[in-house]
Specification:
The complex is a heterodimer. Chain A is an alpha/beta fold. Chain A folds into two domains: 260 residues, Aldolase class I (TIM Barrel, Alpha-Beta Barrel), CATH 3.20.20; 83 residues, Elongation Factor Tu (Ef-tu), domain 3 (Beta Barrel), CATH 2.40.30.10. Helix content of chain A is 24%, strand content 23%. Chain A contains ten helices and 20 strands. Chain A has an eight-stranded parallel barrel, surrounded by five helices. Chain A has an eight-stranded antiparallel sheet with strand order 16-15-20-13-14-19-17-18, covered by helices on one side. Chain A has a two-stranded antiparallel sheet with strand order 8-9. Chain A starts with 20 loop residues before the first strand and ends with a strand. About 1% of the residues of chain A have low confidence. Chain B is α/β, with parallel strands linked by helices. Helix content of chain B is 34%, strand content 21%. Chain B has ten helices and 14 strands. In chain B, the strands form two sheets. Chain B has an eight-stranded parallel β-barrel with strand order 1-2-3-4-5-6-7-13, surrounded by six helices. Chain B has a four-stranded antiparallel sheet with strand order 8-11-10-9, covered by helices on one side. The longest helix of chain B is centred in the C-terminal third of the chain and has 20 residues. The model of chain B has no long low-confidence stretch (mean pLDDT 95). The chains are: A alpha/beta, B alpha/beta. Chains A and B meet through helix 4, helix 5, helix 6, helix 7 and strand 8 of A and helix 4, helix 5, helix 6, strand 8 and helix 7 of B. Strand 8 of chain A pairs antiparallel with strand 9 of chain B.
C-alpha cells in the first residue's frame, strides 16, 4: 500500500539539482516589469475578480496581455491568483473568467477553492492549476491527493518545516512551491475570519484587515496578565526571510521560491528579487563554493518594513518570532526615481521622479545583477533643459549626471531621515 | 412547507457519559473521537474505547460521527490507518474530515464509511461541496460566516446533506503557533502558566472593543481564538428547516453540561413542535428563557452571520 511504505531515501546534496523558479509578486503592470527585469522567472498577479487582494490595483485582461507579452520577452511566466474561497454568488462567473485568463496567455492560476480547481480543469485545460497556500497543505499525503487530482504544483502551507518538505518531495513527484520571503499570516492561511467578525469584511475573499496585528489584552481570571508597562498581546508574526538558507531549500528540492507582497512597492519588489536572483545564480554557478554575500542581506534590509525570521522551516516560531514592540518602521531607503534613458557619450541619465530629490543628496543607483553605486547628486535639469532646485513633481522627467553608466529600469533610491 | 424533513440535532461530546446525557436531552447525533485526531473537541474518547462508545450511542438510538478533522503533519500520518480502521470497525456512522490525507487513507484502506466534509471557515459554496461529494463526502459542514440566503442557495444546489451551526461559540482564528506560550515568554513569565487545553478562563480583549471577550486557548494542535458571542438560532429553526438544512449543530465547547443540555432541550422542543404542526408553528418563550437563564452575562446571544451582508 502506497501510504504505508517506508520513506524513500531523501536526496542528498550531491545530486544534480534543478534550478528553482524565482516567483515574485506584481501588484501592477509596472511592478510586473520590474520584477521580471530584476530576475523573476515568473510573477503572480491579481485579476479584478476572485483574488485575495481587493485593495491592490489589480490587472484588467488587457493589462494581463501586456504583462504576458513583456514577461515572455524575458522567458518569464505570468500566474494569476484566483485564491478566494468562493461563495454562492461568485460561482456563476468563474468559467468565463478562467477562459479569459487562458486566452490572455496566463500560464497558471493559483487557487484554493476546489470549485475553481475543477472549473479550470474543465474549461481552461491550457491553464496550469497551482494549489494555493490557502488550502493549508502541510503533509505529504495531502500533496499526493492533489497530484492524483491532476495538479502539477502545490503551494505549501507556511507551517511546513524543512524536514517535512524534504519528505514530501521525496515521496511525491510534484512541483512544490514555498514562500521564502515576505509577510505571513500567523494563523494557518485561510483558517482565520477575524476580519469577518471585527469588520464584516470577508478575509477569505480579499477583505482581510490584518486584525492579527492589532493590540489585545490577554486576561486570566478576569485580570490582565501583563504589568501596565509591558507590551500587549498580538498575533503579529515577523516577516519571512530565507536569504541566508537558500542551499537548504534548493537541496530539499523546492521547485519554486515565492516572494510575498502584491501590495508592496516597486522598490521593494526590485530589491528583494535582485538579491534572491543573485543568490540562486551564485549557488548554481558553484554549489560547493557558495557563500552568502552580505550585500544580498543588506539589499533586502533596505526595503524591509518589519523584522525578519525563518518561520516554521527550522521549528516552531517562539517569542522572538513575533512582534510585540511597536512595529512598522519605514524602510530605511525610499524609491526616488527610475532611469528611463542614458547617454553614454555625455554620461547623462534621464530619470522619472518617484519621490522628491535635490542636488547634493546622497543617492544609490541599483540595477539587476547587483550593479550598484552611490553618489552625490549634481545639477538637475527638467525636460526643457531648465535647471531645477528640487525634483518635486511626481513622474517628472529629470536629467542628471551619473558617476557610472546606468540602464533603463535601474532604480535611484535615497536614504530616509 | 409541511413536507420538510426534520433535521438532526448534533452536538460534540467528550466522553460516553456526556454523550448519554446529551442524547437524553434531545441530541440524535454525537460528534466524538480521540482528541488528537480532531480539532477543538470538548474531550477525548480514546481509540480503545470507541467501539464501546459507538455501541452505547447506537443503543440509545443516536448516531455517532468521528471527528478526524485536524490538519495533519507528516509525522502524524502513520497513526491514521489504524485509527480509521478502528472507527470503521466500531460501526461509526461517519468520519468528519478536513484534510484530504484522511480521504486518501479511507480510499486506500477501502473502508466503507460515509464522509462528512468539514473545512471549517472555508466550506463556503456548493460547487466545492460537490467536488468533495464526487470523492465520497455525503455531507458538507457549512462555514459559520454564511448568511441565510447563501445557506438556502447552497442547499438548493447540492445533493449533499448540509450541516449548519445553530448554537454556541465559533472558532475565528486558528494557528499552529503556541501564541500564548510565546507571549508569556516575552513577558518573562513561566510559559507553563498556560495550561494547555480549553476552559482555562483565558480571553483576549481588543483595544478598541473593551466589552468583548474572545476566549483563547492552546492545545497540542495550536492556538484557538473563539468568538465573543454565542450563535443563537432557535428563532430561525423554521427558516432553516424550510431551507432544507439536514443537521443542526450545537457547539458544546467551553460550556457546562447543564447549559448544553438546556440548549438541546430547547432546540429539541422546537423541532418537535414544528414536526407535529409545521403550518401553525409557534415557539414557546420558555425555551429561550431557559437558555438565557444560564447564559454567561458577558456573552451575547446573537444571529451570527445569518442576516449579515459582508463586503470584501
Amino acid at each position: 500500500m502506497t501510504l504505508l511504505q517506508e520513506a524513500p531515501k531523501t536526496r542528498g546534496s550531491r545530486q544534480r539539482l534543478a534550478k528553482p523558479e524565482l516567483l515574485a509578486p506584481a501588484g501592477s503592470l509596472e511592478k510586473l516589469k520590474f520584477a521580471v527585469h530584476y530576475g523573476a522567472d515568473a510573477v503572480y498577479i491579481g485579476g479584478q475578480k476572485y483574488g485575495l487582494r481587493s485593495n491592490a490595483d489589480n490587472f484588467s485582461i488587457e493589462e494581463m496581455r501586456e504583462g504576458v507579452a513583456f514577461a515572455s520577452r524575458y522567458g518569464a511566466k505570468v500566474f494569476v491568483a484566483t485564491n478566494i474561497y468562493a461563495h454562492q454568488e461568485d460561482l456563476a462567473g468563474i468559467a468565463g473568467y478562467l477562459r479569459e485568463l487562458d486566452d490572455a496567455g496566463i500560464s497558471a492560476i493559483i487557487t484554493a477553492d476546489p470549485a475553481i480547481v475543477e472549473t479550470a480543469q474543465q474549461v481552461a485545460p491550457r491553464l496550469e492549476v497551482h494549489l494555493s497556500t490557502q488550502q493549508s497543505t502541510m503533509n505529504w499525503q495531502a500533496v499526493q491527493f492533489w497530484k492524483e487530482e491532476g495538479l502539477p504544483r502545490v503551494v505549501l502551507a507556511r507551517e511546513a518545516t524543512m524536514d517535512e518538505i524534504r519528505e514530501m518531495k521525496a515521496r511525491v513527484d510534484i512541483e512544490l512551491e514555498v514562500f521564502i520571503h515576505g509577510a505571513m499570516c500567523s494563523s494557518v492561511s485561510g483558517r482565520c475570519v477575524l476580519s469577518n467578525h471585527f469588520t464584516d469584511r470577508d478575509s477569505n475573499r480579499g477583505g482581510c484587515c490584518q486584525s492579527c496585528r492589532w493590540k489585545y489584552d490577554l486576561h486570566s481570571d478576569d485580570r490582565s496578565v501583563k504589568d501596565p508597562e509591558q507590551n500587549p498581546f498580538t498575533m503579529s508574526s515577523k516577516d519571512l526571510c530565507m536569504i541566508s538558507h537558500l542551499p537548504d531549500l534548493i537541496e530539499a528540492g523546492v521547485d519554486s521560491f515565492k516572494i510575498e507582497g502584491r501590495m508592496k512597492s516597486v522598490h521593494y519588489v526590485a530589491s528583494v528579487v535582485n538579491a534572491y536572483r543573485q543568490a540562486i545564480d551564485a549557488y548554481f554557478d558553484d554549489p560547493a563554493g557558495y557563500a552568502l554575500r552580505p550585500e544580498w542581506v543588506e539589499e533586502i534590509g533596505k526595503a524591509a518594513h518589519r523584522p525578519l525570521n525563518t518561520g516554521f522551516f527550522y521549528g516552531m516560531p517562539g517569542a522572538s518570532e513575533h512582534i510585540y514592540q511597536p512595529e512598522e518602521k519605514p524602510a530605511p531607503y525610499d524609491f526616488a526615481a527610475v532611469v528611463t534613458d542614458y547617454d553614454p557619450l555625455t554620461g547623462v541619465a534621464t530619470v522619472q521622479q518617484r519621490s522628491p530629490f535635490r542636488p547634493g543628496m546622497q543617492v544609490e543607483f541599483i540595477g539587476p545583477g547587483g550593479r550598484n553605486f552611490k553618489q552625490k547628486l549634481g545639477e538637475l535639469a527638467d525636460s526643457a533643459g531648465h535647471v531645477v532646485d528640487v525634483a518635486r513633481h511626481p513622474l517628472q522627467q529629470i536629467k542628471l549626471r551619473t558617476d557610472y553608466p546606468v540602464e533603463p529600469l535601474d532604480l535611484m533610491r535615497k536614504r530616509i531621515g | 412547507m409541511s413536507s420538510a424533513t426534520i433535521p438532526e440535532l448534533l452536538i460534540a461530546a467528550g466522553s460516553t457519559v456526556q454523550a448519554e446525557r446529551f442524547i437524553l436531552a434531545g441530541a440524535d447525533a454525537l460528534l466524538i473521537g480521540e482528541a488528537r485526531f480532531g480539532m477543538r473537541q470538548p474531550g477525548s474518547i480514546p481509540a480503545s474505547e470507541l467501539c464501546e462508545a459507538v455501541a452505547r450511542i447506537h443503543s440509545l438510538g443516536a448516531k455517532a460521527y468521528i471527528n478526524v478533522n485536524k490538519l495533519f503533519r507528516n509525522g502524524e500520518l502513520p497513526e491514521l490507518p489504524a485509527y480509521l480502521r478502528t472507527v470503521a470497525e466500531a460501526g461509526a456512522d461517519a468520519v468528519v474530515f478536513g484534510d484530504p490525507a484522511v480521504l486518501l487513507n479511507i480510499r486506500e484502506l477501502a473502508l466503507d464509511i460515509p464522509l462528512h466534509w468539514n473545512a471549517e471557515m472555508t466550506g463556503t459554496n456548493s460547487a466545492a461541496a460537490a467536488y468533495w461529494g464526487k470523492r465520497g463526502a455525503v455531507r458538507a459542514v457549512l462555514a459559520r460566516e454564511l448568511n441565510e440566503e447563501e445557506i438556502a442557495d447552497f442547499k438548493q444546489n447540492t445533493t449533499l446533506q448540509v450541516q449548519v451551526q445553530v448554537h454556541g461559540m465559533t472558532n475565528i482564528y486558528y494557528s499552529h503557533r503556541n501564541l500564548l506560550q510565546s507571549y508569556m515568554e516575552h513577558l518573562g513569565r513561566e510559559a507553563s502558566l498556560v495550561d494547555r487545553g480549553p476552559d482555562k478562563g483565558l480571553y483576549l480583549v481588543e483595544a478598541e472593543r473593551p466589552g468583548e471577550r474572545f476566549p483563547v486557548y492552546e492545545d497540542p494542535t495550536g492556538t484557538h481564538v473563539m468568538s465573543p458571542d454565542d450563535i443563537f438560532l432557535l428563532e430561525a429553526v423554521p427558516e432553516l428547516i424550510t431551507a432544507g438544512v439536514d443537521s443542526l449543530y450545537v457547539e458544546s465547547l467551553l460550556k457546562s453540561d447543564t447549559y448544553n443540555e438546556t440548549v438541546l432541550r430547547s432546540y429539541r422542543a422546537a423541532l418537535h413542535r414544528f414536526a407535529s404542526n409545521p403550518d401553525f408553528y409557534k415557539p414557546d418563550s420558555a425555551w429561550e428563557e431557559a437558555i438565557r437563564e444560564l447564559q454567561d452575562p458577558e456573552r451575547e446571544l446573537g444571529f451570527g452571520f445569518l442576516y449579515k451582508q459582508q463586503v470584501y
